[in-house]
Amino acid sequence: MEMKIGVIKGDGIGPEIVDEALKVLNKVAEVYGHSLSYTQLLMGGASIDEYGVPLTDETLKLAKESDAVLMGSIGGDAKTSPWYQLEPSKRPEAGLLALRKGLNLFANLRPAVLYEELKGACPLKEEIADRGFDMMIMRELTGGLYFGARSTEMIDGVLTAKDELTYNENEIRRIAVRAFDIAMKRRKKVTSVDKANVLDSSRLWRKIVEETAADYPEVELEHMLVDNCAMQLVKDPAQFDVVLTENMFGDILSDEASMVTGSIGMLASASLNETKFGLYEPSGGSAPDIAGKGIANPIATILSAAMMLRYSFDLDREADAIEKAVADVLRDGYRTIDIMSEGKRQIGTREMGDRICSYIM
Ligand code: NAD
């Protein structure tokens, strides 16, 4: 297969961790006979330094012309970086928001996986961690409360703030379809999370998700109220496969699910639109505190590249090979500093990339 990939190395540790992900992709292409071409794109701080703005129209155009975009993290230290002397719309993060909007990325996917070898980092009780978990939090990204009308005004002499939560059936259906498609590639279960006992938007959410489920008879669907879901994530995370939810609930639940895995350097993510296109990036930031030291954990970016192969190119076998190589490296005791524990062997960013490549055969 020929794959045209846009690459945004980003700021801070971005270039270091993206280089390792590209190394792994190149190894996969060699072993499985694929052809990859990369277009380097500047976004965030690196784009401000070069062009004075965090995202140019040309970069957005080139991103749209790619089959998928792999990205490191962007941004710098808000206290010391000159990027943060600029007005908010010119800062690095504004580039990322504009890119997501320009690419119409409405579905955010964050896997939360507890690796057998990293169980010690899991903050949950031992008997819960022992059961392991492997879930995909799927969050609607462009609708709901964060995009509704808002106002603060004096009503009858009382200062009153208002935020509107709106979803239409099309916005719900398109993400529900993605969730069921993804469940078909996994353990075939969708937990749709809402607050249907209170909110009209949640009742519509539930109705449309149920209609969508009718097209996927192999997938088990359950509904869960968001307050219960927040509890279940720490009580019994093993029960979840795909967790589908709206923007604000997803914002909170995806962070909660990330925390129970115990390591930020391991967390991949993807944002998808209606086509096969996706933007794939680690969940963590640009870690300016460790940039340039060669110690950043590249695994989240490498796993994001695996997600790219699975969801943008339907190369499940190749994605499995990367995920297995990561598990093998951990099993053999290699760790970057952030996931280091007693008796394990500490290695740097590059060696981690090399070792993962060596397990892909
Ligand atoms: P951060 O995630 O960059 O760092 C938090 C802590 O985690 C730091 O101690 C860091 O060293 C560590 N860490 C993060 N990734 C790591 C990795 N791969 N390996 C080892 N350790 C890792 O969060 P922050 O310090 O709050 O933010 C730094 C910058 O990143 C800010 O400018 C912020 O806006 C930006 N940011 C960007 C994105 C993105 O590009 N999507 C996301 C979050 C934050």
From TrEMBL:
The EC designation for this entry is 1.1.1.85
Manganese as UniProt keyword:
yes
Which residues hold Mg(2+)? Answer: 227, 251, 255
Family matches, as InterPro entries: IsoCit/isopropylmalate_DH_CS, IsoPropMal-DH-like_dom, Isopropylmalate_DH
Q: Which reaction equation describes what this protein catalyses?
A: (2R,3S)-3-isopropylmalate + NAD(+) = 4-methyl-2-oxopentanoate + CO2 + NADH
Q: Which domain of life is it from?
A: Bacteria
Q: Kindly give the PROSITE patterns that the UniProt entry links to this protein.
A: IDH_IMDH
Q: Which SUPFAM superfamilies does this entry report, sorted A to Z?
A: Isocitrate/Isopropylmalate dehydrogenase-like
- Give, as in the UniProt entry, the pathway in which the protein acts: Amino-acid biosynthesis; L-leucine biosynthesis; L-leucine from 3-methyl-2-oxobutanoate: step 3/4
Indicate the principal place this protein occupies in or around the cell: cytoplasm
Enzyme class name: oxidoreductase
This chain belongs to which protein, by name?
3-isopropylmalate dehydrogenase
Q: Which organism is it from?
A: Candidatus Mediterraneibacter stercoravium
